[in-house]
Amino acid sequence: MPRHEGRRRRAATAAAALLGALALTATACGPDAAPGASAPPLALPKAAPTSVGDLSGWKLEDWARFVADSGFANEVAQGYWSTGRTEGAKPRLVQEYALSSPAQGDVQRDAPPAAVPATPQPHPYTPATAVAGKLFVTTPKGDAVCSGTVVSDPLNPGRSNLVYTAAHCLHEGRGGGWMKNIVFVPAFNRDGRAGRGKPYTEQQAAPYGRWTAVRAMVSPTWLQESGVGARDQFDYGIVRVRGEGGTSLEEAVGGSVPIWFNAPREQITSAVSYGYPAERPFDGMELDHCDSAVRPSRLSFDRARPPMYMIGCTMTGGAGGGGWFITRDGKPNLISVNSIGDRNPSGYLAGPSLQDQAKQAFDYFAKNVK
């Protein structure tokens, strides 16, 4: 998609507040199936809950059994993500739900928000945006891309190796299995000014290196449900990554973003969503964002679960898992991730409200899943 200078200037102005806040925290899916992509799906973990309320009584041993039963394993062969593979990876589609369709069952939704055009992050990228990155995975249908965010690890301040994303970027849900070949590339960057088809170096594309997922967790509810709907209210996932040296991911990129769990909805008066949209009219080669200056709307498929946040945004598939940020006490906090939206054309994105279940999962993962 053409990138015009006027559009760049507007993007720079719109993102200035968030990027300034990010700087304050600096500390120091497609056809070409790959080998192993068609492995049989994992059985539903024995520890999966039968209802959302079942999680409230989970103890350490319940979470440990759930993680063990979920059977995550990730091996990435040396050189697997070649330039050709990264360019050929298809967008992991944002799950589609049309707000124009009649509400059925227990669906609760506010009026559709006005579409907010996605704007490209101006080049050259600043270190403040290095917390946002691109997630490469292999699905049963081939190589795909999502987005993710470097988040703070309360047990290792300044040395986090944690990436927050959407569950649908990591696991297919009920009847499916884990993605394979999961690699996170912070600040993935194909400078549009260079022109498509021209050679670019590994340093340009992955200025902070490539980070392999070694452990992962998604919402227990996500694993037991399928389809677009109530499970998307828990569409979150966590990845622990490892680099080639002894440096942590947070040290490499220069910062991380804390997650604001149980954020009071009345205090969320605006939001900025980042991601790498790769479905037309985007190409996935650059970081984009939607800046919503109004309070997020609500979208709920099950009234017993926290309603999703919803903002106007034209980002497409590939942006899934990208972080939603607000400024809190002068610093950015992550409050959600891109989960579902509409298509042809894209006009909104919705993401889960990270309440008790998400906090329980994150706390257990950060402390115990190494």
UniProtKB/TrEMBL annotation:
GO molecular function: peptidase activity
GO biological process: proteolysis
EC annotation from Swiss-Prot or TrEMBL: 3.4.21.-
PROSITE patterns assigned: PROKAR_LIPOPROTEIN, TAT
InterPro entries: Glutamyl_endopeptidase (IPR050966), Peptidase_S1_PA (IPR009003), Peptidase_S1_PA_chymotrypsin (IPR043504), TAT_signal (IPR006311)
Region of interest (Disordered), residue spans: 32-51, 101-122
Comp. bias regions, Low complexity: 32-49
Protein name: Serine protease
Taxonomic classification: Bacteria, Bacillati, Actinomycetota, Actinomycetes, Kitasatosporales
